[in-house]
Amino acid sequence: MKHALTGSVAFLLMAGLLAAAPAHAAVAAAASPTSTRAADMAARLQPAEQQAVLQARPAPATDGDGNTPGLLAWPGVPRLGLPVLRMPTFATPVQPGDAAARPMLPWLALAATWDPDLARRAGVARARAEWLHGRAVLRVGGVDTLPSGRLQGGEDQVLAGSMGGMIGAGLLSGHVLPVFGSVAREEQVRADGAAPERTAPVKAADLAAHSLLGVATALEVAHGGAMLCGGMAPCGEVTGLAAMVHEAWHFPGMILAVPGGDLPGGGVPDSALHGTDTAPALNAVAMGVDMEQVSPARPDVLGEMLRRAVRDGDIKPAQVQAMVTHILASFYMAGSLDHPPPFAAARTGVQPPPVDTLMGDVEAEGAVLLQNENRVLPFDPALGPVLVLVHPAMRQAADLLADGLRHAGLNVTVVTAPDGAGATGTLPPACAQAARTLVLSASNEDNRMITTLAELGGHVAVVLTADDPDRQMPWLDAVDSVVQAWAWRDEYAQALSALLSGQQDFSGHLPVTLTGGLYPPGMVDANYRAFERAHVVPLFPFGYGLSARGRLALSELHVVREGNRLNASFTLSNPGTAAVRAVPQLYVETPPDLPGNPRRLAAWRSVMVSPGHPVRLSVPVSLRLAGQWNNAGGNWSVAAGDYTLSLGFSSVMLVRHATLHLPALHVPATLENQPAPVVTAE
C-alpha cells in the first residue's frame, strides 16, 4: 500500500543524482551547447581581448577616486556585447553584502540540517543580495582542492559537496556564478593544533577520492559553476589538476586563482617584477589556471608576464583561447553574460532585502539534540519555572531566547554569572533553588561553572553556542540535556525557543565529529573515517542527532545493482505518536581483503515520517564511492568483491546491513547532468 510522505522528501548523493538546478546552469561534456557557445565567442575575441579577460582587476570606485576595496571587475568585451562583471576578492573569507563581520552563511548549522531544499533556498537568498550589490560571482566554501582538515561545510566530502552544490544551484538560479573553494581562515582548527601537510606537491589522482571528490560533487550537484585553486595553498601543489577537471570530469568551466602571490610557485620573483621572467605565467597555465584575481598589493601573473610568454612562443595562442573558453563557459552556465546585474544599486545605495526567516529555519532544522536524560527537553510549563544562566557576553542572546520561551508559556528568569564563576559560592543565589536551569555556553571557559551548577542537584540543560568540534564536556554525565546550537545569531532565538519548548522537534544531525578534544595518537584528520581506522568511538559521532518526540525504526534493507549505480531500498517507520523528520544514512564499505578507504557516507534522505505509516524508500548510490581512482583510464575502478551497505542514523549507529557481490567495473568520471530518479514511497 502506498502512503504519502508528510512534509518534504529530499535526498543527497554523489554523481549527479540530485535535481533542483535550473536548465541554463547545466554541466555538460565538451560538445555541449554551453561549451560550443563559449568556444565560438572565444574565437571572436582579438588576441589582446583574450588576454585581458584572463584577469579580474580592482574595480574603480563609483566616484572615480581610486578603487573599491575588496571589489574586482572582469573587463568583458563591450565590442561583442560581453558586459563587465563584478566580484569580491577571494583571498579572504566570504562576507555578506553589508560587510558585517560574520560568514555569509551559518555553514555548520546549514550542513547539520542535511536538507538540500534549505541549502538551495540559502543560495537563492544570497544571489538576491549579490544582485542588489551589482555582483555576479560569489565564492562558496565548504570544499577545497587540497585536503583541508575540517572545513566549515563539515568533514565529509559528499555531504559538504552536496550541500555546497545546492547553495550553488540557488546562486545559479539568480544568475550568480558560484566558485567552489575555501580559504585558510574557514578551517576548523583542531584543539591540539595538528593540521594536514600542505607543503609537498601532490597528484590530483591522489585527491580524487578525498578533497577533489567534494569539489566534483559540488559542481555536479549545482549543475554549473567554477572552481577555486589557491584557497588553502598554491595551485602548483596539485599536479595534473587540469587534466582531472577537463579531461576526466569533462567539466567545461574555469579554474580560478586568488591574487598573484598564491599562484603556482608561491611569491613572484624579483626578476618578474623587472620584466625578465615569465616562469610564473608558464606555471599558472601548466597547472590549469584560467583566470587570476589581481591584487593591487601583489604583482600579477596573467598580465604582462603572460603577454611576454605569448610573444616569445612559450605559450601558444591556442592555450590562451582555451582558457578564455573555460571562463566564458562558466559565465554562460550562470547566465551572467546574458543577465548581468546592474551597477545602479552599487552607485545609489542598496535597499535592504525583504525580511526572510532563512536563518531561523536553519537553526530550527540544524540544532542537534545530543543528550536528553530524564526527558528534560522540551521544557514543560507545568513543571515550574526555568532559570537561564549565562555569562555577560551572552546576556543579549539569553534575553531574546527567554522572550521566546515566555511566549510559549514558560516562566523564565535570566541571571548573569560573573566571568570566572564556577567555584562553590560564586554562582548567583538563584541557582541553588532552581529545579531546571538552562545554560548558554560559548566556550570551555564555562565548564567549571556547568560542573558546579550540576552538583547543586537540579536538572541542567546546556546549549552550545559555538562551532567547536573539539568542545570539551567534562560535565556530560552530570547534566541532563545537551544541544549543539552552533555559532549564535540573534535570528536563532525564536527557532531555538520553539525547540526547547516543544513547539518544534529537534531534527539536526552532526556534520562533524564532536571529539571532546581527544584524538588517538598520530591521528591527523579528526573526521569519522579517521576514528574508524583507529577503532575509537568519539564523544559524538558524525551524523548523530536525537529527536525529543520519539524514535524511528529501519528495516528490510535490500540492495541491487543497476548499471553504474546501486539501488538501496528500505522501510522507515515511526512507532511514536508525533511526526518526526528522519535522516536515514547509507554508508558503503569496501571488501575487507581490499586496500582502500574505510566506510564512507554514500547517500541519505531527509523525510518527515508520520506515526503509524511505514514507508518504503529507494535511494540510488553511485558506484564511484565504492571504487578507487584509475588515473590511467581517467575513471573509477571497482574491484570484484563483496561490498557492504550499512543503514542507520549516524556513522556508528548502523542497524541494517546488506552485502552485494560486484564484478570488476570501470565507472566514468564525467560529471553528469540528469534529473533525479522519481522519489516513491510504497
List keywords for this structure.
hydrolase, 682 residues, alpha/beta, GH, signal, 19 helices, globular, hydrolase activity, disordered N terminus, Glycoside hydrolase family 3
Explain this structure:
With 682 residues, this protein is of the alpha/beta class. Helix content is 26%, strand content 23%. The longest helix is centred in the middle third of the chain and has 18 residues, at 317-334. It is globular and about 80 Å long. The relative contact order is 0.13. Mean pLDDT is 86; it is low at 1-30, 96-103 and 674-682. Keywords: Hydrolase, Signal.
The DSSP helix count reads 19
- Class derived from helix and strand content: alpha/beta
Q: Please give the order of strands in the largest beta sheet.
A: 4-3-2-13-12-10-7-5
Topology, number of strands: 30
Provide the low-confidence segments as ranges: 1-30, 96-103, 674-682
Rg calculated over all Cα atoms: 26 Å
The portion of residues forming beta strands comes to 15-25%
Q: What overall form do the CA principal axes indicate?
A: globular
Q: Please give the largest β-sheet.
A: 8 strands, mixed
Distance, first to last CA: 6 Å
**How helix-rich are the residues, as a percent range?**
25-40%
Mean pLDDT, all residues: 86
